[in-house]
Specification:
The complex is a heterodimer. By secondary structure, chain A is an alpha/beta fold. Chain A has a single domain, classed as Aldolase class I (TIM Barrel, Alpha-Beta Barrel), CATH 3.20.20.70. Chain A contains 13 helices and nine strands. Chain A has an eight-stranded parallel sheet with strand order 8-7-6-5-4-3-2-9. In chain A, helix 2 links the parallel strand 2 and strand 3. Chain A is globular. The two termini of chain A are 24 Å apart. The relative contact order of chain A is 0.15. Chain B has a single domain, classed as Rossmann fold. Chain B is built from six helices and twelve strands. The chains are: A alpha/beta, B alpha/beta. The interface between A and B is large, with 41 and 44 residues. Chain A: Its EC number is 4.3.3.6. Chain A: It is an enzyme of class 4 (lyase). Chain A: Keywords: Glutamine amidotransferase, Glycosyltransferase, Lyase, Pyridoxal phosphate, Schiff base, Transferase.
Chain lengths: 301, 207
């Protein structure tokens, strides 16, 4: 239920849900599959971890249906770190989300990286106390997720590839569409709302403020300090790094380097220093070589 | 610099809700600037340490040579306001930090990190803050810390109904467990500006 934001002592309000994402700004959220990896991420300066059973690169390599993680694994990860813990539910799988809320995760990611459970409906996220982050490839998709109650948006990119080109495309698309709204007159905004398939009030709010009403991170293919810094310079509030850290040669150092480059994203000297001596980056797959059915960013609408 | 008509207030911009603090300070007429480097710190009359992840802020202040300049500035009387993670950074003593986590110190308190539990326990409530007048502060607590113990040097500014301390002051330092910057209540930031003006007045009188 959407809680009244003005009453006293209320949990799960919109302000509290969106507020946690505000506090994560300028930070790096890292995918982890074990408690040990979660501790490495925390020590390296992650602002939160995403608990999952397989990183996207392995989901891609192994195929099959990807689902919510085992509750034991999520419990282990929650117990091993003190920074926020996020976990993924399948698109539309509101019962997986109920389970994750029951386990006490700090954020649920309704994620295209897992196999969708519903090809029509996303989760009604207003029904939860736990906040949700959702992926988007363009502004209309972001606004529809916010309408459903998402308290944070991440541009999708193409998870598990180590190819940053889709992440670049999605963050550029979203910011360009926001800029375009800002220059429109009111009569044009009615048409824009129709074209974006989003409520007029939300479209008008974005046009007036020049930004989404929730925090916008970037995800999907970030593998190096320079990748992370580029996403920040393109207007992201922070970055998710999935396979890029624990599929690389030296996860602890790479994780710390990406944290530094994100904080000092506009300082090439820091990014250069952070990029030295990190060993092998994840091998990666060019998105252009991926046949269309294997592109995760096309899941969700 | 100190004494100028428009106070120059920095927001420590290594991680966290920097934008919200810059917006409040700008609205109050201050020259608000992000601070990530020692030379930027040296040029401000007051500082905000924002909300965010305290373990990350600690790590980055040490990695980028900000820890000692910040400690020296605090010791020299720089007015500083910390919210949430900022309260943790200003605490002399920390409970439940990550392994090896350090604070800058300055406030004679023990801060307890994540004292309320997970995000599901994050909440908002109205809070009496007598120093700011009769109107309560609408306080937003997000995975917030608590002040477990207030030492001889510090003074509690606000407590929850059950008596737990969530706002403190000591000399030129102010800290809150909650986030006035996300609700548009500017009174804590005004208090920081008052501390800045008091310090400028003292500096002018001494010279």
């Amino acid at each position: 239920m959407m809680t009244d934001t003005t009453s006293t002592g209320s949990t799960g309000s919109t302000r509290v849900k969106r507020g946690l994402a505000e506090m994560l700004k300028g930070g790096v959220i890292m995918d982890v599959v074990t408690a040990e990896q979660a501790r490495i991420a925390e020590d390296a300066g992650a602002v939160a971890v995403m608990a999952l059973e397989r990183v996207p690169a392995d989901i891609r390599a192994q195929g099959g249906v990807a689902r919510m993680s085992d509750p034991d694994l999520i419990d282990d990860i929650i117990a091993s770190v003190s920074i926020p813990v996020m976990a993924k539910a399948r698109i539309g799988h509101f019962v997986e989300a109920q389970v994750l809320q029951e386990l006490g995760v700090d954020y649920v990611d309704e994620s295209e990286v897992l196999s969708p459970a519903d090809y029509v409906n996303h989760i009604d996220k207003w029904n939860f106390t736990v906040p949700f982050v959702c992926g988007a490839t363009h502004l209309g998709e972001a606004l529809r997720r916010i309408t459903e109650g998402a308290a944070m948006i991440r541009s999708k990119g193409e998870a598990g590839t180590g190819d940053v080109s889709e992440a670049t495309k999605h963050i550029r698309t979203i910011t360009a569409e926001i800029n375009r709204l800002s220059s429109m007159t009111k009569d044009e905004l009615y048409v824009a709302a129709k074209e974006l398939q989003s409520p007029y009030e939300l479209v008008a709010e974005v046009a007036a403020t020049g930004k989404l009403p929730v925090v916008l991170f970037t995800a999907g293919g970030v593998a190096t300090p320079a990748d992370a810094a580029m996403m920040m310079q393109l207007g992201a509030d922070g970055v998710f790094v999935g396979s890029g850290i624990f599929k690389s040669g030296n996860p602890a150092e790479r994780a710390a380097a990406i944290v530094k480059a994100t904080a000092f994203h506009d300082d090439p000297a820091v990014i250069a220093e952070a990029s030295r001596g990190l060993g092998e980056a994840m091998v990666g797959i060019n998105v252009a070589d991926l046949p269309a059915p294997h592109r995760l960013s096309e899941r969700g609408w | 610099m100190a004494g100028s008509a428009v106070p120059r207030i920095g927001v420590l911009a290594l991680q966290g809700d920097v934008r919200e603090h810059l917006a409040v300070l700008t609205r109050l007429g201050a020259a608000a600037v992000p601070v990530r480097r020692p030379d930027e710190l040296a040029a401000v009359d007051g500082l905000v340490i924002p909300g965010g992840e305290s373990s990350v802020m600690d790590k980055l202040t040490r990695l980028f040579g900000m820890r000692e300049p910040l400690r020296e500035a605090i010791a020299a009387g720089l007015p500083v306001y910390g919210t949430c993670a900022g309260l943790i950074m200003l605490a002399d003593r920390l409970a439940d930090g990550i392994s090896g986590q350090q604070t800058l110190g300055g406030l004679d308190i023990t801060a307890r990190r994540n004292a309320f539990g997970s995000q599901l326990d994050s909440f908002e409530t109205d809070l009496a803050v007598p120093d700011l007048g009769p109107e309560p502060v609408h306080a937003v607590f997000i995975r917030a810390p608590l002040v477990d113990e207030v030492g001889m040097g510090a003074r509690a500014l606000a407590t929850l109904a059950d008596g737990r301390v969530v706002a403190v002051a000591q000399g030129a330092l102010i800290a809150t467990s909650f986030h006035p910057e996300v609700t548009g209540d500017t009174r804590f930031h005004e208090l920081l500006l008052t501390r800045v003006a008091e310090r400028a007045g003292r500096t002018a009188a001494a010279s």
